[in-house]
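Reviewer 2 asked us to include a model.

Predict the structure of this chain.
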Amino acid sequence: MKNLLQIGIEVNSGSTGRIAEQIGIVALNNGWQSYITFARGFNPGKSNTIKIGNKVNIYAHVLQTRLWGNHLKASTQATKRLIREISLIKPDIIQLHQLHGYYLNLEVLFNYLANIHIPVVWTLHDCWAFTGHCAYFSLLNCNKWQSECFDCPQIHKYPKSYVDKSKENFYLKEKLFNSLPNLTIVTVSDWLNGLVKQSFLKKHHVQTIQNGVDITKFYPHKDTDYLRKKYSIPNKTLVMGVGTIWSESKGLYDYIKLRDLLDQNVSIVLVGLTKKQIDKLPQGIIGIERTESIDELAQLYSLADIVLSLSYQEAFGLTPIEGFACETPTIVYNNTALPELITSKVGIITETGNLKQVNDAIMEIIKKGKNQYSTSCIARASKVFDINVKYQQYFALYEKLLAQKV
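Predicted model (structure tokens):
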């Protein structure tokens, strides 16, 4: 029996954690064993799980990143313990996901991976792998990553540091990530694929496998009225945004500004906010904390009339397709990977930051009615983004790599 080991920060929690779980299910359905690592963000699933480090380890890693910029070199002992686990499992394929996040020593890990004869597939969910510091640079239109990072304008943003080691870390990443002769890179969008081919990772084989949606969990729910009572949502047209971490780049301030333009018969609900963020919301916007309940999230999508994604940078954008699966049309900004998700039958693309266009798009969908989009939304989710199609592509890639190895 073949073994798949996925290395990531979450399991069956958050977007990347759910993706890892779903890929693991595909492997299990094909007769493989599946193992998934996590440092935080855990929900029981079908795969075997491996815990990396603990809270003390994470806090120490954060401290080393803040004070010395050592985001790539902390968590040494936790990583060595993981390597011992890998040696015991003897995986046939190692699948990497999000490797940043204060839980791995990447110098130790990649030195190990470079010396074993196991095919490695690395799914990039953002741009961090080929920059000296940041996970995204589109908001600032920074192109230093194409040649050499230095004087990072985002050094005080995640992964925040008081020391600018962007140049040193740029070259360390280039050395480590190009040291694997058996590395295949998967990007979750064509937009990200194009960036990788301009970066120091371009020598590797790169292919796109878009993220998928589980249509057995995300589907139209009819009995959603109780949610209005639970979260005090008025009986008005509902525009909803969903995020794991809300920030300026996620468009949080644009939702707040949009509130002043919208008709009073339209409500805005934002899902995934912190308590602190909810307390600061203006009147007319309802905040809901992050939920680990997929069922409730699907019900919220079903309750909404429009899913709104005002993000300034997305490597993919899972929110719109989860909305499609629940019959709900979407409006997105015309940037990064978001336009790849949309057709005129399922939503509207607006100019980034143009809230008047967003308001007009909302009114257009309201005028047509959600029902005019429902059939097309369901069809796009099931025909284009069904996980049973998307994540089978990973298994086909694994089989191909193992055949080449022989």
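Residues 207 and 251 are 29 Å apart (CA to CA). The longest helix spans residues 14-29. We have added this to the supplementary material.
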